[in-house]
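User: quick one, fold this
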Amino acid sequence: MSIRYTKDMNEEGINEKRRMLIKLGALSVASFALAKLFGPALEAALKAPEHTDYKNFRVVDNGDTLHIYDKTGRELLVVQKDDSPTEGQT
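Assistant:
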């Protein structure tokens, strides 16, 4: 039994297009797995800081409240975050 070689096959008889498809699939699976594994860590590392300083005021996020201070340090506004769903959300 002999193997017929076509222009898409190498000496082992493996189709080059098939090999490229398998490589591309393996790369896709590996990148998906790495994104699932390291995604939360990267998201936490790139998360915005808890306080932001602007020229005339400072915004501090404490998780459940948002505090806004002027440049002298006086508290101007406190906004409480609401975890209940709004209209149209379930």
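User: anything notable?
Assistant: The mean pLDDT is 78.
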